[in-house]
Amino acid sequence: MSDAPQQAGKQAQTGPIAEAEVVHHISNPLVRAVAHWYARRIVNVNINIIAAGFLALVPVSICVHFIHSTKFIENAKAIAAITFVLDVVFDFSIYFCLHYLANHGPFRKFVSHNPAYRGMSFLHDAGLVQMQRAILSPMLYIIWLWVQHYLIAESSIGAGWATAIGGVIGIGTSRIVHTIWMLVEERRRHAKYVAKQSARV
Hints:
Helix content: over 70%
Number of domains: 1
């Protein structure tokens, strides 16, 4: 007797299990839930931007503290300009690495993609986020550098702490505005995707 019916039966039984294994590569349910939550683009973009901003604050604050403490540059406006250049270099470099890992790296094999953003290349995806950040950056840096300048001129907490406090306030404000922007864009893209799929039916 042929084994084909038995093999077909086994395939039918193992099919859902195999499919489930493809969808859920992560065995720990808590880790899987966190991974799928982090995989949502609007979530990981915000987390990565905040992480990049705070991680960049460390080398930026150290550099500014060194410049100020050695009296190499004492002018507050010059320090603000140096802070801006250093933050752009460190922040953007760190963010590109984090964005790749979250949205295009090996991590993506373990979680599902948002259909509205599926197929976007790394440069297109990261470039879109950086363009949005660039548009919002004047607000971020005006708030940051104004707070830094004010604290250096009017308090005795030191240039390093003034830089860090200004950065926290500037990053927090820009994240609120950027999140609202991304929510609107995500809903628009999702509606466009649904309409495109409906048109194929």
